[in-house]
Design goal:
The chain has about 160 residues and is an alpha+beta fold. The chain has three helices and seven strands, in the order βββαββββαα. Strands 3-2-1-4-5-6-7 form a seven-stranded mixed sheet, covered by helices on one side. The longest helix is centred in the last third of the chain and has 49 residues, at about 100-150.
């Protein structure tokens, strides 16, 4: 069984009937089908329109696979379905998706993690430097103690 199509604002049914989507017959047809293929005018690519049952009634969604990934856009309720709306959805499905908020959160988190790492590394380096300075001080004191213990043996 082939999926019905809407091409150039016209519904083409499996049994060969043709009528406008934006007509009373089109509205009745929309209530009777669960999905159809929409072929937009212009450069946008065709996509599948599916009816899904929700709490407030039936809702229509547009689906199109791009680079192996299925994209989904809300179309509206059956009463809101029109060729104009379907053309808008075709444009939306043709537009690359914007980065999600989680991508931005990840970016900020990684930047903050790098700052913390840098600070800890700087702090660790400063701690090591302080420890080395203390060791040099202890060695200098030891050297002075040795010099004073062996006054005739060493030349300053």
């Amino acid at each position: 069984m082939a999926i019905p199509s809407v091409v150039q604002r016209l519904v083409e049914t499996e049994d060969g009937k043709v009528f406008e989507l934006d007509s009373q017959k089109g509205s009745t047809w929309v209530e009777a089908v669960s999905s159809f293929r929409f072929e937009p005018t212009g450069a946008n690519k065709l996509y599948t329109v599916r009816k899904e049952v929700g709490k407030g009634g039936n809702y229509w969604y547009g689906y199109r696979k791009v680079a192996g990934r299925l994209h989904k856009k809300y179309v509206g309720k059956s009463s809101e379905l029109s060729t104009t709306k379907l053309e808008e959805i075709a444009e939306a499905l043709n537009t690359p998706p914007q980065p999600r908020v989680t991508d931005k959160v990840t970016e900020v988190t990684e930047a903050n993690n790098q700052r913390v790492t840098d600070k800890v590394t700087d702090s660790h380096t400063a701690d090591r430097l302080t420890a080395l300075e203390l060791q040099v001080g202890v060695l200098q004191e030891s050297l002075e103690a040795l010099r004073s213990a062996l006054p005739g043996k060493l030349r300053a």
